[in-house]
Amino acid sequence: MSVYLPTLKQLQYLVALRDAGHFGRAAEASFVTQSTLSAGIRELETLIGVVLVERTRRVVRFTPLGESIVAKARTVLREAEELTDMARAAGRPLSGEMRMSVIPTIAPFLLPQLLPRLRRDYPDLKLYLREEPSAAACEGLHHGRTDCVLLALPYGCGEVEVAPLFDDRLFLAVPGNDAADTTPLVADDIDAERLLLLEDGHCLKDHALRACEQPEARGQAMMMGTSLHTIVQMVDNGLGTTMLPQMAIDAGILDNTGVTARPIEAKNASRRIALVWRRASPRERDFRLLAEVLGAQRP
Question: Which family does it belong to (predicted)?
Fold first, then answer.
């Protein structure tokens, strides 16, 4: 008796549709036509004998069973990819494709120094980068969209292996007219009501509030910016102050501004840069080697 099983391609189409919520966008992300993707999902539904997706003109809605199968499909696809990773790991180190998410408060400041060295020393490595906030990066890691994440700790990223790289000190960025005093600040010197922070989803927001050591600061601080560069311009226009990591300052984020960075003498006035990946990944050797390369880029 023949047993017909879902194909990996059908499962990929189903997961793509769940992530995109739209047949056209899912097809585009899968590099196929919309009719091909739709036909693949219908074949899957026919194969298992149940409806997974309710289709209307405006809405794509997954049935409860469809949601459960999507969750299982993510696991199957991730484990299928790890079969290839096992073979790759047995070959040359840092070769083949690797997908890495990097948070926005690290990517523009560390990657320009990192990428040339990787291209020079590991020419067979095809590194695909994705810049996204910590929450999305960790979700993508556990769903198999990326292989590893370069982020800042402390941050709850789930069940992962962690390779700490270096500590990145935090400074308070103040407008020029507030910069006469250059002595180090203590936590009590920071006015939470003037503090401009990144939006939710960026771990630097939580690191900045930890550095303040003021429990009430979360309700008082102004969360406005979508990027550090935008917030620096706000500070330069006298709208408040903000926390900046040392790597951003060393990379020149304050160039051509009147903003001054003042050191903070506080227990939590730093963040730890780290590379994380899924536990039991067959590419652990590659990730640890990559962590060594990243750690060598310490500002």
Answer: Belongs to the LysR transcriptional regulatory family.
